[in-house]
Predict the structure.
Amino acid sequence: MTYDIQIWVKVAAFIGGGMAMGFGAIGAAIGEGYTAARANEAIARNPELAGDLFKTMLVGQAIAETASIFALIIAMLLLFADFSHVTTLTISIFLASGLCMGLGAIGSGIGSGLPTGEACAGIVRQPGMRNRITTIMLAGSAIAQSPAIFALVTSLILLFVDFTGRPISPTWAAIIGAGFAAGLGAIGSGIGEGLVAKSGCEGIARQPLSATLTTNTMLLGMAVTETTAIYGLLIACILIFKNFPAAESIASSMALISAGLCMGIGAIGPGIGEGFTAQSAVRWIARSESSAAQLTRSMLVGQAVAESTGIYALVISLVLIFVL
Amino acid sequence: MEELGKIHQLIVPFFGHTMTFNLEVILMTWIVFIALLIFGFFAARNKRVIPGPVQVVGELFIAQLYGLTEDAMDKELGKKYGPMVCALFMFLLFSNWSGLLPFMEEPTKDLNTPLSLGLMGFFIAHYAGIRAKGFKGYIKEYFEPIFFMMPLNLIGELAKVVSISFRLFGNIMGGSIIILVVSHLTYSVLLPPFLNAFFTIFVGAIQAFVFTMLTIVYISVQVK
């Protein structure tokens, strides 16, 4: 039995593909289940609207599934990759790419299920606002997908960027680190943005008169909640595109992996925390429009403070990349 | 699939350094400018009390965006920054939608465009902050709540530029890559129009709005 590079690349591709689809299936399933649960509840309250609610539920579930379809694309690309021109670096590329997409799909999958479930409950509460609630649901779950899109972009860049001529020794670690940074970093923001979008749907159903204001605050809150996933994408881009000089010692490789892990794990908490902040702000702005200015201000300040731990993680991973 | 990540560049030597021009991005930016000018010309040509179709669209943009700016700041500052906000939103919207046309690429797909727009917003916000609070009051903000928080506040401000520009870049780039890959996998049968409708029209419009909204908020946070 001989083990040449091609065999190892195949092994990496199969493990990567398995992880991409395996992890990628977690989030979307939870989100879709939540949507169906809220739809059941809504149908029980007003069985006359069952047809409409059923439609909304199916549309919502289809959107919530997007993240795991991204994971499916990556898994297919890895399983049917071209194994004829491979180098040692391809092993870590395939592993990192699968890991990145798999982990990155968890948050957005759960997150995009939350607004669609709340939309079903909202339509039953306020059937006249059906169209508006559906629009907000679509916008909310589309934005909640963007952390998964960042993970997908990172995986695809890893697969298609030309790494020839780079030294093997720290580059393999940079690639794995990039996968961790973008993948883990997407989890928190995905869930957080889902929480914000959920309260956007709820707010419009409760107080249709302040729909425009609620929508604007929701979009703003989601955009700020997404920030830590963007830091993850930034660290991943730096790790992929920076040309690291060859280094024999294992320490410099480990520094790059830790940079990715640090940013990825450090982004989970701030993402969820900022989501809580914006969720409550959006919910209460919908109910008391007159205090919107104060609530927006306290939301932004609260999110900035919740984000500071994510900024610490960003600083430490930049130090790990550029100083050590 | 080979075109992924390839850019036509013009590299010019410049006093010992090199200047790199991304030709497609510059060309597409100018095309968007020209489209905006044409739209503006037809929207403002023979204005009437009962508006024509193009004038209605123009008025819709202006009224909504001025309203947003005045809500976030106040009436006077809203009048001052309103034109910039309108220009920013319409440029981003036209840029993000330009990818729909064949042989065209979104200028926002290249990081340079969002980054320069983000830097523009950053400088305008901080200029407005210095104008509103005076230089001393502006500097004092960085030393709050305690003086040693200064480096972190500074990094937090710089991180805003990174997050605003990478958000737009990541979404537009991601959408176009997904469309490219899925079209390749399905031999361009059936799926691409739906993907274009979702990623280019829907996500493009939302991201243009989010970028504009954040720029307004950054200015209003500095002013207050």
